[in-house]
């Protein structure tokens, strides 16, 4: 037996008991005549003591030799601590050790195993197994497990069935790039790893397996933007015989449950925002509504003067920055530089100070009167002491720019409090999205999303205006879930695929099995998927998903700890009937 | 709203209430003046009624047109049924329909959606979404979800943390063949899909994440034997600071819990059998102990006469078949043919009838006396009326042959009752296994399994005799779980890898990260993994895992429903820097 107790559970009530503990040497304080060791395991830290009076000389010497992260087992008596430590649960006691066994030695770790470590990201990733010993990482992983279990139990309790769908499926050119898996037994053929179990969950609905969920890994071979992973986890859900309202109700219930159980936050009803309103008010389909700064559209109060920049703009739009009038001229100039960075792409920024005396001072005073500026304040909701920041240009671009500025300012002003949770639904998404590069429309959600009733006729004439039965669940400025009511009849699915540019043959080759299934009594159905990594990070008050993944990959899709991916044997390639087609380096 | 109730919940207490139901037309009985429809959903069947007296003409005609598997919605009043059906939960009532909406039509399904269907396996797999509508498949999937949830809750309640490990890892030539995934971003390199999360769970132990579990998909690119799947699900577990006894206790607890909660069977303590004894008594390391027929080794009572076949044999071994003396001569001849089939490979079978009058009649009466035969009966435990079946030859072959015969006879005699559960531990497995083809030893469990204390010295002299800290959990003749105490120090791991034929460079390239990890304070650890597919099948009283997988693959690793694997675009190949290297067909 390696231990009678763990390092987090011994209390004053155990005093005089003999215990056996195992764990890692967190810290050693060696005063020569006395040695204290902090012994750590997953559950906590317990202080060990060895001294000249009460320990044998051999034992004391043995203790003095222990290095950081040595794995040891001790037997000893629980005694009261002279100077108690109220900061840890075991702070009332210590263990007077009678026997010490070194279970394994340790090299000096490459970074300190402390909450605030001296190790950089790269080093911590290479030695992730040491990083996981640190409380912040360990607690994040435990937190993730707790959230996951809450999700499973909540959904199971309301009749959802977890069904495993396959990982070795078929590649579809639609959407992001697939990871593929060559098949040895089927020469020249490949499986694909699922980007999501979308078609399978729909087939489960056709199969009558009403109320399905699955917590499942999904894969996308994308060029990794910051904080994306090639493999990620979804809470994937689908229901039959439902309308949008049924789905929102169920998953609002789940999210409310999580906020309550995990964060102790009670939220009654989630606001709902039309997609068009979200874009108009926040320039963004996943608005952070923990703070105001709603957009004010200023065209009608800014395009009547000689200011050409505004007059030529499709949209003139501003936000009121609370107490922004405190910004110095230099700070404002820096803000203007910030929006002009290529990543944001604004050509400039007009601002207007709202002075405490009710007057206004703008960067375009030569064009606009105090009355004009007062109207800007009214439209943007600016109060005395605020600063109005105004951008102008092509609508979709300027909205994105102002949204970025709004988030940046909120961050700087400390308005994005991770302990505050502001969920909302964004509904009535467009069905199609214009790809500016190709001029083609593609599915905004995916090709299985149904258009709003009566709108399918618009597909030919005004494809960009067709709204979908699609919805996103947004939390603190992040999309944590999204879904739709699906198409469930072959004819509509065929029309949809045609509009997405699939020939009949392509549609048949890719989605024939689904179209066939729709002919055998497919029920109305719809669903939603949560991004678990992000959901967990946000509930945990953080935004970096990597911190909530045990063994994440870096931005090149590499696992630097195991050094994957890696070359494989020629024999392996041969068995798969493959050859490398590497570019010649001359 | 598509429904106010589901099709399984309406009872007599609902009579006179108005309800809305949605579901599939299971069956229609049209008598002209009256139509009954069985409406089915996931939850059950409710009878609908339409008739001349109480329904409008239009409604009656509409009902008469409904085909099998049409998806409909009805509104109506719950009424008492004239002739009640005690076989279904809703059998006291029916719905007098006032409104009928066809939500989707259906082609005639290619097989009947009944518990006993007319569809063959291939057809059912192609239309798996229809197969899932059938109760046996649907109930198996629901059963699987229930078992899985029980596992998760049990382990979570005793402090296990579910941690997700990566799917895109590194290929290792050890063990079965890996599925590989070409990396687009890392030219010429490949990920591998995990055969198990073995190294990651060990790294989690090094990381202090004591008590890990995960229900996780694993992948093996093997030539598929009957009832194997290229992707399968494991309940993967690992603990730190444990000895074998700790692990057996925890997972015996889990299994006992499942048997009780899922099957209502209480089993106090699981027997333990040494590997050597399992082989001696059952010729098999996963014995079915629901019935007797233990092996009796007969060398000492059969090699003293002139019967050369026995005298030349390394092992002479028999079993007593209960009441086997009832077999006719013809039946026994067929049994002899059965053991001589190439799949079994015995050269012949000696038998001995145990007559009711206490005499014996054997096929080798010219060599053996009644006294000899009485000893055989004693050794095999044969009673009057039994039949002793005896095989002889090289020990490991003859054991396998007699084991196959034992199982076949038990099957024929109805001794393998799927409602009876007989779990046991098989312990003290050999560390290494001789590969007869190559003459090399390889790890019986895997290269991370620790030898029994003090036995590592035997690795050089008697590698085949070294026993490991390895154990299997066996249920009804199937290995449902297996595991080991792992090596946790670099030196031992290096010795082990050397004995498995890895050069130092190979060991470094493949397992360097693990060996490094062992140098930073790796704790003693061990674990176990259950094969979830088989566990669920056996608890469900069946043995075919395919019946418990929503979308299984066939023996060629194909999903015949979605038709995967499939060729991929040349562009996709090019992006992956790959070329097909297909064999020329001349």
Number of helices of chain A: 17
What is the radius of gyration of chain A computed over CA atoms, rounded to a whole number of angstroms?
30 Å
Annotation, overall tally of beta strands of chain A:
23
Oligomer: homodimer
What name does the CATH topology of the largest domain in chain A carry? BirA Bifunctional Protein, domain 2
- Overall structural class of chain A, as computed from helix and strand content, comes to alpha+beta
Q: Which spans of chain A have pLDDT < 50 for at least 5 consecutive residues?
A: none
User: N- to C-terminal separation of chain A?
Assistant: 63 Å
CATH C-level class of the largest domain in chain A: Alpha Beta
Any idea what the shape of chain A is? globular
User: Sheet with the most strands of chain A?
Assistant: 8 strands, mixed
> Proportion of β residues of chain A?
15-25%
Write the layout of secondary structure elements.
The structure is a homodimer of 586-residue chains.
Chain A: E1 18-30, E2 34-41, E3 44-51, H1 57-64, E4 71-80, E5 93-104, H2 121-126, H3 128-131, H4 135-157, E6 161-162, E7 180-182, E8 190-192, H5 198-206, E9 212-219, E10 231-240, H6 244-263, E11 272-274, H7 275-282, E12 296-297, H8 299-302, H9 308-311, E13 315-321, H10 329-340, E14 350-354, E15 360-362, H11 370-380, E16 387-393, H12 395-412, E17 423-427, E18 432-434, E19 441-443, H13 458-461, E20 470-475, E21 478-485, H14 490-499, H15 504-518, E22 525-531, H16 532-539, H17 570-575, E23 578-580
Parallel strand pairs in A: 3-5, 6-9, 11-17
Antiparallel strand pairs in A: 1-2, 1-4, 2-3, 4-5, 7-8, 9-10, 10-22, 12-13, 13-16, 14-15, 14-16, 17-20, 18-19, 20-21, 21-22
Helix pairs in contact in A: 4-6, 4-16, 14-15
């Amino acid at each position: 037996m390696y231990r009678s107790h763990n390092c987090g559970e011994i209390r004053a009530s155990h005093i005089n008991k003999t215990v056996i503990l195992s764990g890692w040497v967190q810290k050693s304080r060696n005063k020569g005549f006395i040695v204290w060791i902090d012994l750590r395991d997953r559950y906590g830290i317990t202080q060990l003591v060895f001294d000249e009076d009460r320990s044998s000389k051999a034992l004391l010497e043995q203790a003095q030799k222990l290095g950081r992260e040595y794995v040891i087992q001790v037997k000893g008596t629980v005694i009261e601590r002279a100077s108690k430590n109220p900061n840890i649960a075991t702070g009332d006691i210590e263990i007077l050790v009678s026997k010490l066994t070194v279970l394994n030695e340790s090299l000096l770790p490459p970074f300190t195993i402390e909450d605030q470590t001296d190790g950089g990201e790269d080093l911590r990733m290479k030695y992730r197994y040491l990083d996981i010993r640190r409380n912040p990482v360990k607690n994040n992983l435990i937190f993730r497990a707790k959230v996951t279990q809450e999700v499973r139990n909540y959904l199971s309790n309301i009749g959802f069935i977890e069904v495993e769908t396959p990982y070795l499926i078929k590649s579809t050119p639609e959407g992001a790039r697939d990871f593929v898996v060559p098949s040895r037994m089927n020469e020249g053929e490949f499986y694909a790893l699922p980007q999501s179990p979308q078609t399978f969950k729909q087939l489960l609905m056709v199969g009558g397996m009403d109320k399905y969920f699955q917590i499942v890994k999904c894969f996308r071979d994308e060029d990794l933007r910051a904080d994306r992973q090639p493999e990620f986890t979804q809470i994937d859900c689908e229901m039959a015989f439902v309308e949008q309202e049924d789905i929102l109700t169920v998953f609002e219930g789940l999210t409310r449950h999580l906020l309550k159980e995990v964060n102790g936050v009670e939220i009654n009803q989630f606001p709902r925002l039309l997609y068009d309103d979200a874009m108009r008010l926040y320039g963004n389909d996943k608005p952070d509504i923990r703070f105001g700064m709603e957009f004010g559209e200023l065209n009608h109060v800014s395009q009547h003067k000689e200011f050409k920049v505004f007059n030529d703009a499709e949209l003139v739009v501003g936000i009121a920055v609370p107490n922004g009038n405190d910004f110095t001229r230099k700070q404002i100039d820096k803000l203007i530089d910030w929006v002009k960075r290529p990543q944001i792409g604004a050509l400039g920024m007009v601002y207007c100070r709202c002075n405490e005396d009710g007057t206004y001072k703008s960067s375009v005073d030569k064009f606009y009167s105090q009355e004009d500026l007062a109207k800007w304040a009214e439209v943007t909701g600016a109060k005395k002491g605020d600063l109005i920041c105004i951008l102008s240009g092509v609508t979709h671009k300027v909205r994105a720019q102002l949204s970025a500025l709004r988030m940046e300012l909120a961050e700087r002003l400390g308005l994005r409090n991770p302990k505050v949770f502001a969920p909302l639904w964004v509904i009535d998404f467009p069905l199609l999205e214009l790809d500016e590069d190709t001029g083609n429309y593609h599915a905004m959600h995916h090709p299985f999303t149904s258009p709003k009733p009566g709108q399918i006729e618009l597909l030919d004439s005004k494809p960009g205006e067709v709204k979908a039965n699609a919805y996103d669940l947004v939390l603190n400025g992040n999309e944590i879930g999204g879904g739709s009511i699906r198409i469930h009849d072959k004819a509509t699915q065929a029309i949809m695929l045609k509009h997405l540019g699939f020939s009949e043959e392509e549609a048949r080759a890719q989605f024939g099995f689904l179209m066939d299934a729709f002919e055998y009594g497919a029920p109305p159905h719809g669903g939603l998927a949560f991004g678990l990594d992000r959901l967990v990070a946000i509930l945990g008050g953080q935004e970096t998903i990597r911190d909530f993944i045990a063994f994440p990959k870096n931005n090149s899709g590499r696992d630097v700890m195991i050094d994957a991916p890696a070359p494989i044997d020629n024999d392996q390639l041969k068995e798969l009937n493959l050859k490398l087609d590497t570019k010649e380096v001359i």
